[in-house]
C-alpha cells in the first residue's frame, strides 16, 4: 500500500480512502480490526498524528469504532438510510416522520415567554421587546436524536399555548387555532455546533451539523416564527429541484 506524498490530497485522507476501499470491497469485514495507528505509521511512513487523523475520519463516518483496550474495528453499516429533505418544500418534522414511516418524539427542553431581542424582533418585523415564546425541542426518530430546534413565536396570536402542546406537532396546534402557515424563507449552512447542541445530538467534537435558519409566514403574509434548526447530518441531507431556464 502506497500513498503519494507529493499529492495535493492530504496524507490522512489518502490512508482513509485506501482503508475505505478495503472495507467496501470486503477485504476488512465488520468485526475485523483495522491496523493500529503504530502499524499505519510503519505501513505508510507517516507520523502518528497523520495515522490518528485517518482513523478519526473513519470513526466520524461510522465505518469503524474504537473500543478502549481492544482496538478499532469495522462496524456494520447503519441500517437507517439518510433522510433527504427537499429545500423547495416546507416539511415539518412530523411530516418527515410520516413520509418515512417512523415514530417521532418531541422532548421540550425549554419553554418560556421572553421579550424579543432586537435581532429576532427585526426578523419578525415587530418592535424590540415584543413578547415571544422561546422554545427548545429535541426531536427523535425512533431512539435517534435527529433535530435540535430553537424557535421564537409571537405570543399575540397564541395566548393559551402550553409546554405540553409542544410535545406533539407544533403546526397541528397552530392550524387548530385557525391559522395556516404558508411557507418559510431558509438559510442553510454547515457548521460546527455549540457544545450544548453537540451533546444533545450525540455527536463527536468535530462533527458538523446542517443548520437551517428560517422565517415562517402565514397565508396572509404576516410573520409569526423565527427558528434555528440543527440537523444531525449523519441522518439528513437536502435536495432541491432545479429547473433549466427555457
Automatic annotation (TrEMBL):
Q: Which SMART domains match?
A: HTH_GNTR (SM00345), UTRA (SM00866)
> InterPro entries of this UniProt entry?
Bact_HTH_transcr_reg, Chorismate_lyase_/UTRA_dom_sf, Tscrpt_reg_HTH_GntR, UTRA, WH-like_DNA-bd_sf, WH_DNA-bd_sf
Pfam families reported in the protein's UniProt record: GntR, UTRA
Question: Is the Mitochondrion keyword given for this protein?
Answer: no
Keyword Transcription in record: yes
Residue ranges of domain HTH gntR-type in the record:
9-77
For this protein, the record's Gene3D superfamilies field holds: Chorismate lyase-like, Winged helix-like DNA-binding domain superfamily/Winged helix DNA-binding domain
Which keywords belong to this entry?
DNA-binding, Transcription, Transcription regulation
Protein name in UniProt: UTRA domain-containing protein
Q: Which organism is it from?
A: Rahnella inusitata
Amino acid at each position: 500500500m502506497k500513498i503519494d506524498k507529493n499529492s495535493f490530497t492530504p496524507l490522512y485522507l489518502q490512508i482513509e480512502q485506501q482503508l475505505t476501499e478495503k472495507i467496501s470491497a470486503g477485504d476488512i469485514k465488520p468485526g475485523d480490526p483495522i491496523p493500529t495507528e503504530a502499524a499505519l505509521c510503519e505501513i505508510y511512513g507517516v507520523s502518528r498524528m497523520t495515522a490518528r487523523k485517518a482513523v478519526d475520519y473513519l470513526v466520524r463516518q461510522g465505518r469503524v469504532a474504537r473500543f478502549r483496550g481492544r482496538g478499532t474495528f469495522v462496524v456494520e453499516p447503519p441500517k437507517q438510510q439518510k433522510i433527504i429533505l427537499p429545500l423547495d418544500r416546507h416539511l415539518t418534522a412530523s411530516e418527515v416522520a410520516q413520509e418515512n414511516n417512523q415514530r417521532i418524539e418531541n422532548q421540550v427542553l425549554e419553554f418560556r415567554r421572553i421579550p424579543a431581542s432586537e435581532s429576532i424582533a427585526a426578523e419578525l418585523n415587530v418592535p424590540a421587546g415584543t413578547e415571544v415564546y422561546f422554545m427548545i425541542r429535541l426531536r427523535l426518530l425512533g431512539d435517534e436524536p435527529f433535530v435540535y430546534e430553537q424557535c421564537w413565536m409571537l405570543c399575540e396570536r397564541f395566548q393559551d399555548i402550553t409546554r405540553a402542546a409542544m410535545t406533539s406537532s407544533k403546526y397541528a396546534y397552530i392550524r387548530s387555532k385557525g391559522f395556516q402557515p404558508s411557507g418559510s424563507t431558509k438559510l442553510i449552512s454547515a457548521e460546527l455546533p455549540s457544545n450544548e447542541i453537540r451533546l444533545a445530538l450525540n455527536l463527536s467534537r468535530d462533527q458538523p451539523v446542517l443548520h437551517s435558519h428560517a422565517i415562517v409566514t402565514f397565508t396572509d403574509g404576516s410573520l409569526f416564527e423565527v427558528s434555528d434548526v440543527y440537523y444531525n447530518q449523519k441522518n439528513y441531507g437536502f435536495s432541491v429541484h432545479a429547473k433549466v431556464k427555457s
